[in-house]
Design a protein that fits this description.
six-stranded mixed sheet, alpha/beta, Rossmann fold, globular
């Protein structure tokens, strides 16, 4: 039986998975959500004997029901191949009474690779399934990692072009260099004058511009998205939660059906939402710990039931979490509103007009799966140093935010459930912040000197993703004000 997808903001006609992947966003500006969350149809013990690729199929087949086995397995095998530098794809490392789920072994050394390695294949397969004859234009905003992962995934993919907007002064040097050195005639990278929220809002406005949509149609183009607002990116993220659990089961670190915690460094809310979907599929999860940095809009939401973006935007050492509008939270709000699109739309309209909304007590009562807290810059740096001093294990700033929040969670709850900390980026991606947390003296070194020193102290080889940009040519030097984003898109497409 096919699983259909609806919009979070209206009762518009439901669509199949392939259609939702192609569209990216519904026409009413909402997000696609499955009509129900399917249950796992294999036992945890059965899944524990499977490879990452096999687990991926068992999860995705339940959501992408209009794909046949051959189509879906083809997408999975092309995505999770030797572009990952470890056979497990997403290994677990035990350190300091927790398990770190390393999601940075793909081609751009960040967790976005886990979904963006497969999205281009899902999208091109969906286009064939739906007899699409237009060229697909991937339009994406990034806070640092999505951009490079999407560019790498879609570069030179036939029938696609990709345009990435990023905050010019809101990403790390490595993140920026990864993007602006991207090869591929179909790729286009643009720095903007604002922050990530400005880039994301600008992209959404372009998606909702009917006149621009008509212009694209006339020239043989159609928009889609590689952000986690695309259901084709969200579903693959569910896989690594299931896989990490069953690996712990296989290694006898936990017993069958033993509940565990996941700590997720969170910005746009897609990653932790995937964990929430996994729990609703039957994965034994005790608590979903939502870790924020100084931009603690999500912590305040879980603490008070009030979402309020009207606050100072703070640039931190964990830039992928420097977000005040967490787009994927809308999918959770829709669910705790009992799937009422009108009620959800009223919240989103309030957010758009006044920058805030407040959920009612009945909705707040449904958030018991979550715990929210945040870590300051000082706490983040201290966690990196303490973990290294105690274990020799080096984590990036985003993972450190999660680790610092987990320490607060343990102190306030005395919870003894085994816990997985989701490690979303390689420390090499944020070498300066990581190394100066360990020792301020490192700040005297140049960026690539820092990288070589990080390799020396961590006994981890410098990833290929870093080596290839050490001497790479800069290919993208584009910049615009946020209000010029539509013009920049048209210019690139020759409209």
């Amino acid at each position: 039986m096919d699983l259909f997808y609806r919009s979070t903001r209206s009762d518009c006609k439901p669509v199949k998975a392939s259609e939702a992947i192609l569209k990216g966003l519904p026409e009413d500006g909402g997000l696609f959500v499955p009509e129900y969350i399917p249950m796992l149809d294999k036992t945890l013990n059965e899944l524990s004997q499977m490879t990452y690729q096999q687990v991926a199929y068992e999860v995705m087949k339940l959501f992408f029901t209009d794909f046949n086995k051959e189509q879906l397995m083809s997408c999975i095998e092309k995505a999770y191949d030797n572009k990952f530098d470890v056979e497990e794809i997403a290994p677990l490392v035990e350190a300091n009474d927790a398990f770190y789920l390393e999601l940075f072994h793909g081609s751009t050394i960040a967790f976005k690779d886990m979904a963006l390695s497969i999205l281009p294949h899902l999208m091109t397969t969906s286009a064939k399934m739906n007899h699409v004859d237009k060229e697909i234009v991937i339009l994406t905003a990034t806070s640092g990692d999505t951009g490079k992962a999407a560019l790498a995934g879609f570069a030179s993919v036939e029938g696609c072009k990709i345009i990435v907007f990023y905050p010019k002064n809101g990403v790390s040097m490595i993140q920026e260099k990864q993007m602006i050195t991207q090869k591929g005639d179909n790729t286009f990278v643009v720095g903007i004058s604002g922050n990530f929220d400005d880039a994301q809002t600008g992209v959404k406005h372009i998606f909702n511009d009917k006149q621009m949509e008509e212009e694209l149609n006339k020239h043989g183009y159609q928009f889609s998205s590689a952000n986690s607002i695309n259901i084709g990116r969200l579903v693959p993220q569910i896989v690594y939660y299931v896989y990490s659990y069953v690996q712990l089961l296989k290694e006898e670190k936990i017993t069958d059906k033993e509940a565990i915690n996941f700590v997720v460094p969170t910005g746009n809310f897609g990653n932790i939402l995937a964990a929430y979907f996994a729990k609703n599929m039957g994965l034994p999860i005790h608590k979903l710990i939502c870790a924020s940095n100084d931009n603690k809009v999500l912590y305040d939401f879980f603490d008070t039931g009030i979402y309020n973006k009207n606050r100072e935007f703070i640039l931190t050492s964990s830039p992928s979490m420097d977000i005040l509008i967490s787009s994927n939270l809308e999918r959770l709000v829709y669910r705790i509103a009992n799937g009422n699109p009108e009620k959800n739309k009223a919240f989103m309209d309030a957010l758009n007009h006044s920058g805030t909304y407040t959920i009612d007590s009945e909705m707040a009562d449904q958030l018991h799966d979550f715990y929210g807290n945040y870590a300051t810059e000082e706490e983040t740096a201290a966690y990196i140093k303490n973990l290294f001093d105690q274990t020799g294990y080096v984590v990036d700033t985003h993972t450190a935010v999660a680790g610092a929040v987990y320490e607060k969670y343990k102190a306030s709850t005395n919870d003894t459930h085994k816990t997985v900390i989701v490690s979303t980026a390689s420390p090499y991606k944020f070498a300066r912040s990581v190394m100066t947390a360990i020792n301020q003296e490192y700040d005297k070194l140049g960026e690539f000197e820092l990288i070589d020193e990080l390799s020396a102290i961590s006994n981890v080889v410098v990833p290929e993703a870093i080596e290839e940009i050490r001497h790479a040519d800069i290919l993208h030097q584009n910049f615009c004000e946020t209000e010029k984003m539509p013009t920049v898109v048209k210019d690139f497409l020759g409209i």
